[in-house]
Amino acid sequence: MQMIIVDDEAHWVDNLSMNKPWGTLGIEYVHKAYSAMEALQIIDIHPIDIVLSDVQMPEMSGIELIEQIKIKNRKIKCIILSGHSDFEFTKKALQHNAVDYLLKPPTDLELFSAVETAISQLKNEWELISSLERTQHTSGEPTDSAWTASA
């Protein structure tokens, strides 16, 4: 799995990307972005599974970033980091299906718990899709070619 950390404050991005044992959670690569626009460019190029984003950034907020991500790829899981405990931000994040809303500085337990929740949601969705595909494949429904051959 791949994750991206997005914040206009470089020390947050650098600290969170380099000083945490992400590999123990199954995160193979952590990308860094210092703006929402940079994050969108990285998401266009790399198979990102999880986004950990600040809520207040210049150009585009973390909430607007989630909106753009959901337009591009609904499967990406988003976690919001914020220095503000404003309920409106929390409400908007949850309305956009954010996995969690963490206050800065998050504890390692809070951070890892949110990422584990995102990973669990992704795995459950992948298993459901795989199960549906197997069910469709084994249901014996006639294919288009079988139907046209019998017509």
Summary keywords:
17% strand, disordered C terminus, globular, 5-stranded parallel beta sheet, 5 strands, Rossmann fold, 6 helices, alpha/beta, 151 residues
TL;DR?
This protein has one domain (2-150): Response regulator (Rossmann fold). 51% of the residues lie in helices and 17% in strands. The chain is built from six helices and five strands, in the order βαβαβαβαβαα.
Task: Describe what you observe in this structure.
- The protein has one domain (2-150): Rossmann fold (3-Layer(aba) Sandwich).
- It has helices spanning 10-18, 36-45, 62-72, 87-95, 108-138, 144-150; strands at residues 2-6, 29-33, 50-54, 77-82, 100-103.
- It has 151 residues and is of the alpha/beta class.
- Residues 143-151 have low confidence and may be disordered.
- Strand 1, helix 1 and strand 2 (29-33) form a beta-alpha-beta unit.
- Strands 2-1-3-4-5 form a five-stranded parallel sheet, with helices on both faces.
- Pfam families: Response_reg (PF00072).
- InterPro entries: CheY-like_superfamily, HptR, Sig_transdc_resp-reg_receiver.
